[in-house]
Write a structure and sequence with these properties.
metalloaminopeptidase activity, alpha+beta, globular, 4-stranded antiparallel β-sheet, 18 strands, metal-binding, Creatine Amidinohydrolase, 23% helix, 343 residues, Creatinase/aminopeptidase-like, single chain
């Protein structure tokens, strides 16, 4: 959930994202996957980085493009609730270069924050029905978080106006909840992050609204499988690039595109190193027991090229292709990884 008015030099030479209004470098940070800067190698470019036109063209037919609704005022947070450092500034914090490590005590706090995030997400998912607005989901999420004595991490982060991200259909990420009602056949990613006792817990899931066609169900299913395969690669001493490798192997079987957004370290700081790629990559570094970060692949039926609405946040595919995303916060252990946001 990164918003930059004057962005730093891009991670790679060029970007597939046409920025409208403010430039965006969101919570997954913004990576790029163009022909000139692709990191996955020539042999994998077709499935990972290029437009998967065979999926995209058919599923757009008969579906109205996503249109923004009315955004209601920002909801208040009681004074007694502990706030993250960025609250009240609408300032976009710098990405912290340190990889967040935890001892026994801080792991207890991480588990508590992540368990709350998971419960909130599970509750939000029960609201996904035709005619329900994303603003209603935001209000319910906000209330559940503050009732638990926590702060909704997205609220005010870089000026984000709501307490949860709701990304519908072709919205890749950072959809702002508004008055638009969900419709039969929609899919929606709900991205919940809570700040509890000084620690962030971060998770998301894509839900089906009403009767959804089989190709869309498959996209959602494969996206969740990709996340779980990425998590299965995690273990003390294993290279970070193994995560993208596992995901790439699976997505290649289906011909979807991996959207150019990536995971991040999370803990007392919302966004930090390490950067987690969801495709084949050559990033250096190895996982260490005690680290926490997110794995959150976003898959598209068509193009990975995106544009950002003039709200500075809502990123959508230029060809209207559907997207699905799943996210967990994980703790690296000696023998593997613990999913902290599993409900």
């Amino acid at each position: 959930m990164k918003l930059l008015v004057s962005p730093p030099p891009p991670l790679f030479p060029s970007s597939p994202c046409r920025r409208s209004g403010k430039a965006i470098l969101q919570k997954h940070f913004h990576a790029v996957a163009t022909r000139e800067s692709c990191k996955c190698g020539e042999a994998n470019r077709t499935a990972i980085c290029r437009v998967a036109a065979t999926h995209g063209s058919e599923q757009v037919k008969g579906r109205e493009p996503l249109r923004r609704g009315r955004v209601s005022p920002r909801l208040p947070v009681p004074e007694h609730i502990r706030r993250p450092p960025y609250d009240g500034t609408d300032r976009l914090p710098d990405v912290n270069p340190d990889r967040q490590m935890h001892d026994r005590e801080s792991i207890v706090h991480m588990r508590a924050a992540c368990e709350l995030a998971a419960r909130v997400l599970q509750y939000a998912g029960t609201m996904v029905k035709p005619s329900v607005t994303t603003d209603e989901i935001d209000r319910a999420v906000h209330q559940m978080i503050i009732d638990a004595g926590a702060y909704p991490s997205p609220l005010g982060y870089g000026g984000f106006p709501k307490s949860v991200c709701t990304s519908v259909n072709e919205c890749i990420c950072h959809g702002i909840p508004d008055s638009r009602a969900l419709r039969d056949g929609d899919i929606i990613n709900i991205d919940v992050t809570v700040y509890l006792n000084g620690y962030h817990g971060d998770t998301s899931r894509t839900y089906l609204c009403g009767e959804v066609n089989e190709p869309t169900k498959q996209l959602v299913k494969v996206t969740e499988e990709c996340m779980l395969r990425g998590i299965s690669a995690c273990k003390h001493g294993v290279s970070f690039k193994a995560i993208g490798g596992r995901i790439g192997e699976h997505v290649n079987k289906y011909g979807y595109s991996v959207d150019p957004f990536i995971g991040h370290g999370v803990g007392t700081i919302f966004h930090s190193e390490p950067i987690i790629w969801h495709t084949y990559d050559y990033e250096p570094g190895f996982m260490v027991a005690g680290q926490t970060f997110t794995i959150e692949p976003t898959l598209s039926m068509g193009s990975t090229r995106c544009e950002v609405w003039d709200d500075g946040w809502t990123a959508i595919t230029v060809d209207g292709s559907l997207n699905a995303q799943f996210e967990h916060t994980v703790l690296v252990t000696i023998n593997g990884a613990e999913i902290l946001t599993k409900c």
